[in-house]
Specification:
single chain; mainly beta; Immunoglobulin-like; 5 domains; five-stranded mixed sheet; about 5% helix; about 40% strand
């Protein structure tokens, strides 16, 4: 290769070509051949790495193809090609030998050409079992025709037209039920849904009652609370309300509760309406305000059912007596723990219940002289009166903060109030808090910045040896890419010389 201190250029290029070929060969040898047998005309289930199973119809033609990457293919049928064609007339086992040592088997099972039906149907869905004459209601089932697209559906009613019921379309899953009249024989009709397919069937039934429609009725009312305090809203409850169908759960439902409240002097006269849906499970009630004066009020109540029928007016009288008790003040609820960032702290009282009244709030800090002075909001620049007080203290250290709240009734602030004291450490390292409140919250306060967690590097999935199948394998020992580059660089310098 070296003559008189000079390289033979042709031999140098041959050496470089040999080195690159060897690296490519080493990299390719690290990739194992595929271990999957594929099938055209069937679906193979791989039971293990060397065993496969399939189910095909008698007379079917399929093509089995062995895994790529092998040099010798030997099938138990006698073929030595990678793919073979088979016509299946009976169940059998086909074996494939790869490179003379690896063995794979395919179990071919014969299935019947008759596909069995699997019919599944839910219970009959009807939003009422008590029906009244003149109604038209949707009726349905949830039906699944698994492996049976030709299922026949049918709706029927025992007694036919004498039952008083008519099915609009009797051959679909979702249809309409019309109530024409009460049953002639006086018996409760039975609705039937049936689906048939391939000699199998599924049937569902539902019994209903048919009656004449009538007006809804109110039998009694009550208030919540029985003797309302000034910080509680007054709620009228319809304790015994019935629809025209007789009870609330028999198809018809209460659609509206209407209450008119009138003071004896006539100065207060207001109507309150609360709508309800057919799926309502809450008590029938309506709020009639929270700023009523101490007085006796006349009440006129009505309900409307889902058919649009109104009940007769139910008359009642309520006595509103606002007490002046210790409970007649708001209970201060402060979100804790309080975290101060530097000199800035946030006091959040949004969870304090106002009971439909206006709240008066004050936030004050205790000075060195023992007096309390108001805190100012960094948002508005004025004294804190909003539910959230974001403030900045003038200096660090322990600070005692007093929060007071009272109700405002008819535009006048109450002389009764509640208060809460909390101690915060402004500018302290641990921000320790001393407070009587027991509640704590993990959510960050406004203005805080949550630290970003470091993202860990994903672990390597490279393996070596027999575990290479299905993974990115490590390169086999040999000349690495960097080593080859270094060799070529040295040879290049020799050429230039």
């Amino acid at each position: 290769m070296i003559r008189n201190g000079k390289f033979n250029r042709a031999r140098l290029m041959l050496l470089a070509f040999f080195a690159v070929s060897m690296l490519i060969s080493i990299s390719a040898s690290a990739l194992p051949p595929s271990e999957i047998i594929t099938c055209k005309g069937c679906i193979l289930n791989q039971d293990s790495i060397d065993k496969f199973t399939t189910w095909v119809k008698k007379g079917s033609a399929i093509t089995l193809t062995g895994p790529a990457g092998y040099t010798i293919y030997s099938w138990s049928t006698g073929e030595t090609t990678q793919s073979i064609n088979l016509k299946i007339d009976s169940s059998r086992v086909v074996t494939l030998y790869l490179n003379g040592n690896k063995v794979k088997t395919v179990q071919i099972n014969l299935t019947s050409p008759v596909i069995s039906c699997e019919l599944v149907a839910s219970e009959i869905k009807l939003d009422a079992t008590f029906l009244t004459v003149g109604e038209r209601r949707p009726v349905s089932v949830d039906f699944k025709e698994n492996k049976c697209p030709d299922a026949v559906l049918s709706w029927t009613v025992d007694g036919g037209s004498s039952s008083g019921l008519i099915i609009e379309d009797s051959h679909i899953e979702k249809t309409w039920l019309i109530v024409k009249s009460k049953p002639i024989d006086g018996k409760n009709p039975i609705i039937r849904f049936k689906a048939t397919c391939g000699g199998q069937s599924v049937e569902k039934t539902l019994m209903v009652t048919i009656g004449e429609n009538s007006k809804p009725t109110i039998e009694s009312l009550s208030t919540t609370p029985a003797t309302p305090l000034s910080h509680r809203k007054v709620v009228m409850n319809c304790d015994k309300c019935f629809t025209g169908a007789g009870t609330r759960d028999q198809g018809d439902y209460i659609a509206e509760f209407i209450v008119r409240v009138i003071s004896l002097d006539g100065k207060f006269d207001k109507t309150f309406t609360q709508p309800f849906g057919k799926d309502n499970i809450k008590p029938i009630s309506v709020s009639v305000g929270s700023n009523l004066e101490n007085d006796v009020y006349k009440v006129e109540a009505r309900i409307k059912d889902s058919r649009g029928a109104y009940s007769e007016i139910f008359y009642d009288t309520i006595f509103v007596n606002f007490g002046n008790t210790d409970k007649d003040v708001p209970y201060v609820r402060l979100k804790e723990p309080i975290v101060c960032i530097g000199l800035e702290c946030v006091f959040d009282t949004q969870e304090t219940e106002d009971n439909d009244l206006v709240l008066s709030r004050s936030f004050e800090v205790k000075t060195v002289s023992g007096k309390f002075e108001p805190l100012f909001s960094v948002v508005t620049g004025s004294v804190c009166t909003a539910p959230v007080c974001r403030t900045v203290f003038r200096e660090t250290g322990q600070k005692e903060v007093r929060i007071r709240m009272s109700y405002i009734r008819n535009g006048k602030k109450s002389d009764k109030y509640s208060e809460k004291f909390v101690t915060v450490c402004v500018g302290c390292a641990n921000n320790n808090i001393q407070t009587s409140a027991a509640a704590s919250y993990s959510a960050p306060l406004a203005g805080q910045v949550q630290p970003t967690a470091p993202v860990a590097a994903p672990p390597s999935t490279a393996v070596s040896g027999d575990d290479c199948a299905g993974y990115r394998c490590k390169s086999a020992p040999g000349i690495g890419g960097f080593a080859l580059i270094a060799i070529l660089a040295i040879l290049s310098r020799k050429i230039k010389k």
